[in-house]
Amino acid sequence: MMDPPAMVMIALIVVGLPTVMLGLAFNRFFKFREKKLEIEALNAAEKAAQYASRSHELEERVRVLEQIVTDGGAQTAAQIEALRQPPQRSVKRAAISTNNDA
What we know:
Number of helices: 3
Shape: rod-shaped
Mean pLDDT: 81
Number of strands: 0
Helix content: over 70%
Radius of gyration: 34 Å
Order of helices and strands: HHH
Number of domains: 1
Low-confidence stretches: 90-95
Largest sheet: none
């Protein structure tokens, strides 16, 4: 028959070691899940910002179209022609790059 301290050591090895190992495994798993959720949240926030930006652009275009429809006469043709022209910011970038090249 074994003495009590030896039985306690065996019990700790048989019960305690697997318990510690399972605890470490769960800890790693939950850290992994937390990191995955953080990445998904960042991706969702980025998509929301893109949608908001696009929505803002569309709202501006609708305002211009509403003004064209409600205004009459000579201004309408000028506004339509202004819409057909490329955006001003790309023209400015092209002008800046050609000035820097010289």
